[in-house]
Amino acid sequence: MCKIITVANQKGGVGKTTICQHLSYIMAEQGRRVLCVDFDPQTNLSASLLSERQLPKENIHNLMLCLLEDCELPNIEGHIQHCGKVDLLPGSKDLARLEVSLLTEMGTERFLQEILSPLRASYDYIIIDTNRAASPLMTNALTAADSVLIPLCPEFYSTEGLGDLIRSVLKNKRRLNPDITFEGIVFSRCNLRTNLYRSTRTNVEKAYYGAVRVFQSAIPDTVKVSDAISRGLTVMEYAPDSKASAAYRAFAKELMEHDTQTAATEGSTIHILPDCGTRRVG
């Protein structure tokens, strides 16, 4: 059974694209059929998985535009690129220009869902990389998803936006996608030895206990990941014995073993405290 996971955070620089790349690599390495969807106009995931010679003309923007113009969708599989063991539905910078039309046209919230639904039979996991803004693209990504994975850096501005994202997901659950759940929160780009990481983690775990899972595995902040990406590799390929490689593998194992029925309770009121902590009330 296919599971669609949207990787989201309303703040940039938290490692969304890197997590998509590494998580999909490990899943595919373990025999899962994986499709990555680059739904971020910055197209960093496409750049990570494709060489310049592979840059395709067909991409997710073309499919979204077909639906916007009330045209019949072409063969979606013809838009998919094979990147080693992982498949990719490439992104496009033109997605940014499409957002205005998505905002003003009726019924556009389910476009990505319509595109991905026929692909469920071909994959075990579909991983969606998103832009950082609360936008029509984000609404589409949430409406198409079975669950939401939230990368979180242990810093004030990252946790400050967490409550907004949680509320957006719960609003989407009420209005558009009643089946969406929280895959969980994964700490990324962490210095595991700092008090900031430990205190932020404690606050987040207390805030969302019983509502949103916080993964035990945390991704360390290390230059080896950046070096790997600059070479078009994952850190598992570039530095297989590194702490980052071990952390990504532990996280992927934890996610794949996660009970897919875990969901958030809708009755909670959530707010963000000014000291970069979070708390759930009621």
Mean pLDDT: 89
As a percent range, the share of strand residues is 15-25%
- Spatially, the strands of the biggest sheet line up as 3-4-2-5-1-6-7
Regions with little confidence, pLDDT below 50 for 5+ residues: 259-282
**What separation lies between the terminal Cα atoms?**
35 Å
Summarize the amount of helix as a percent range: 40-55%
Q: SS-based structural class?
A: alpha/beta
From N to C, what is the helix and strand string?
Answer: EHEHHEEHHEHEHHEHHHHEE
The radius of gyration over CA amounts to 18 Å
Number of DSSP helical runs: 12
Total strand segments: 9
State the major sheet: 7 strands, mixed
Task: Describe the protein.
By secondary structure, the chain is of the alpha/beta class. It has twelve helices and nine strands. It has a seven-stranded mixed sheet, with helices on both faces. A hairpin with a 2-residue loop joins strand 3 (81-83) and strand 4. Helix 1 packs across helix 12. The radius of gyration is 18 Å and the shape is globular. It starts with a strand and ends with a strand. Residues 259-282 have low confidence and may be disordered.
